[in-house]
Fold:
Amino acid sequence: MNKILIIGGASQDILHINEKYIHTTGGAGLYTALGARAAGGQVDMLAPLPSPMPLLMQPINKLINWLGPTVSQDELPHFAIEYDDSGTAKYTTVEPRSESLMSEN
Structure:
């Protein structure tokens, strides 16, 4: 089995689609890690690690080895994304929060 390290994180997002609010998990690092896992890789993800683990992320945590500084779940990045009738996305909330912990400083 191939092993890979993904540097990037997960976010707690709210999608606004057709007047509905959908709470979901996002993050390019997380999606990359899950893709590598689906392709058969053993995956480590270096990213802020929430404690306690949010309910939506608990199944994900079983699939990847999550490394990184421990943060409260409220410190995870948060985005609200609104989709119009044509499918165009507009970010209405952008809160990077704990992503700054991943800098070299």
Observations:
- The longest helix spans residues 28-38.
- The mean pLDDT is 93.
- The CA atoms of residues 53 and 61 lie 8 Å apart.
